[in-house]
Amino acid sequence: MSVCDQSLPYVRAISPYQPGKPITQLAREMGIPVERIVKLASNENPLGMSPKAKVALEKAVGSLERYPDDYELKAAVAEHTGFGMERVVLGNGSNDLLDMAARVFLAPGRSTIFSQHAFAVYPLASLSVGAELIAVPAKNFGHDLDAMLTAIRPDTRLIWIANPNNPTGTFVPYPQLKAFMQSVPADVVVVLDEAYNEYLPPEVRADSKEWLAEFPNLIITRTFSKIYGLAGLRIGYALTSAAIADLMNRVRQPFNCNNLALAAATAALDDGEFVARSQELNRAGMEQLTAGFQRFDFDFIPSYGNFIAFRAGNAASVNEKLLRQGVIVRPISGYGMPEWLRVTIGTEAENLRFLEALEKTRG
Ligand SMILES: *Cc1c(COP(=O)(O)O)cnc(C)c1O
């Protein structure tokens, strides 16, 4: 008998997260020079990070012998969002916050609800604490909120919503989401994952302040990994009631966010110009890519994020042909979409490289 047989069965049931292929790995595998590779696989910001964040980062390198002090970033998030610091929780990436929510509210004997094709970390975080998963079939690739309400059982403690969702890019308009929140029992927590919130056009965005005032069972998570361009530093934040924030802080690892991440994120939050530039690049790139898909007759799902899912048919083969040309996109068969690939919106030149490579896969 192996010692691993003594491990928790619900941990053994987890399928490991599959990240986008790193540039260096493709370089090793296919002998393509790193500088010839275009990676559009992990929804990273093609502009890099805010110049202000870079300056703050370089300065913070000077005091890494000290344990982190997260006061400044918490204060900056509080100011940016209009909440008190007691309602802000910081995470080592927003995935860390999703984990905290699961550890506070889920356990064996409790169930949790998420949508088909929703972000992979929800089942991961839920299974790691032994909760039972309820996956609700999607509607037009997005969340079917009515079906998710119907799926609530007496033992359901937490519902996951990604808005916009990754990998489909679908978006539930806020009036619908509000009606949903009003119907969810007050003793069930809703985690609203807004990793792509900053990419939403202003006219569809909602004010979190009002939401949290109305729904004490709501946890909103945001990240510095996407529009702020700090994916490699691992930093995100949650907004919730002071009572839930207190509980999340109890399971949070002390010093979960490092000095460099804290410094860079504080500066990034203050760089509206960089965010605006990233939004504009994304808008233009979205047009460029969707025009390309239409030209080549590929189905795609209209997206509210910084990425687009498109129907490639034999996605594994198309993906392989793209890789051979040095273009990395993301297969999403693990999300129940075996015919689809997801491409991140890059710079104009990167988008063009992708479209040219895609065209060659059709020959
Ligand atoms: C990228 C992404 C995140 C962000 O994860 P981090 O841990 O903050 O890097 C969270 N949720 C969704 C849906 C995402 O796509």
Condensed summary:
The chain has about 375 residues and is an alpha/beta fold.
Features:
single chain, 363 residues, alpha/beta, Aspartate Aminotransferase, domain 2, 2 domains, seven-stranded mixed sheet, three-stranded antiparallel sheet, 12 strands, binds pyridoxal-5'-phosphate
Your description of this structure?
The protein has 363 residues and is of the alpha/beta class. It has two domains: 3-48 and 272-360, Alpha-Beta Complex (Aspartate Aminotransferase, domain 1); 51-268, Aspartate Aminotransferase, domain 2, CATH 3.40.640.10. Helices cover 40% and strands 14% of the residues. It contains 14 helices and twelve strands. Strands 2-8-7-6-5-3-4 form a seven-stranded mixed β-sheet, with helices on both faces. Helix 5 (94-105) packs parallel to helix 6 (121-127) and helix 5 crosses helix 10 (242-251). The longest helix has 25 residues, at 272-296. The chain starts with 8 loop residues before the first helix and ends with a helix. The relative contact order is 0.17. The mean pLDDT is 96. The structure holds pyridoxal-5'-phosphate (PLP). Pyridoxal-5'-phosphate binds next to helix 5.
